[in-house]
Amino acid sequence: xxxxxxxxxxxxxxxxxxxxxxxxxxxxxxxxxxxxxxxxxxxxxxxxxxxxxxxxxxxxxxxxxxxxxxxxxxxxxxxxxxxxxxxxxxxxxxxxxxxxxxxxxxxxxxxxxxxxxxxxxxxxxxxxxxxxxxxxxxxxxxxxxxxxxxxxxxxxxxxxxxxxxxxxxxxxxxxxxxxxxxxxxxxxxxxxxxxxxxxxxxxxxxxxxxxxxxxxxxxxxxxxxxxxxxxxxxxxxxxxxxxxxxxxxxxxxxxxxxxxxxxxxxxxxxxxxxxxxxxxxxxxxxxxxxxxxxxxxxxxxxxxxxxxxxxxxxxxxxxxxxxxxxxxxxxxxxxxxxxxxxxxxxxxxxxxxxxxxxxxxxxxxxxxxxxxxxxxxxxxxxx
Length: 383
Hints:
The chain is of the alpha/beta class. It contains eleven helices and 13 strands. It folds into two domains: 8-139, Response regulator (Rossmann fold), CATH 3.40.50; 186-382, 2-Layer Sandwich (Alpha-Beta Plaits). Strands 6, 7, 8, 9, 10, 11, 12 and 13 form an eight-stranded mixed beta sheet that branches. A five-stranded parallel beta sheet has the order 2-1-3-4-5, with helices on both faces.
């Protein structure tokens, strides 16, 4: 017995012959070697027995009444349950045509009677070894397919995780900046000469916060800021950050655009209209205090953890000061922004405000009634 042949006690052999003496002789030869044998005296019974309990090997006589060995083999090979079981024809018919027909039907081997016991055993062992190897290959293939499927699932999960990570990164940083961060490790700092910054603060929100549960407070802020995010996306603006109940957005970064001030002005007007949809606990609508400034600044990402796209420079500081010195329900813009807007929006002079440095700065109120003009359409034709 070869190393690839299963132990005889694990092998089930079906012997099919209509002559009882032949069944007895063959079973004695095989059982002496430790094989387990079943016997069938007709072809029809052999087919039924094979389907009910498929054996490891079939020794099949050809000449039998009612259903001969050829028909038995043909039926077994046509059935998916039994088609892979090796069949050895064992018959006194030695014609070449008989052998060709047997092998054409799918027989594994052909033994001519009278036979020698050692020949039967060698051919049986050979077929069992081949079948055992086929089973091993089938199991290995199944295992390989399972490993491939598992690897594909892992790769799909990794791709999904990478996609989620990239989506999160895009939500935190502008697309262009995220791409640069993936390609380089150093800090990003870019100079921009024409940018407009907006700061908005919800008036009296600290008082309201004291009247709400933390979960209600967060939910309210999320609803308000989500509306502002939609406006920022509509006007292709870059939301920079929120600090408490303050909202900061910019135009002209990270991609320069000539209509930066006009885009911010339109968003500011829409923000003032939107905030009126939200009511305080006393039933009064919320109000915003908005400040806007235009100029040059530096924008980028610094540090090695918890990246944020941020802006630095006097332009940012003055925009924040415009908000801090503004009034509830109004939009205060600097003189620098006024020069960008005066031909397309309605603005009135507020006068001067004094900066922390002691310098005076001309400021204006941006009013919600824009001057009718084709120029107002700007880049907003997609609205």
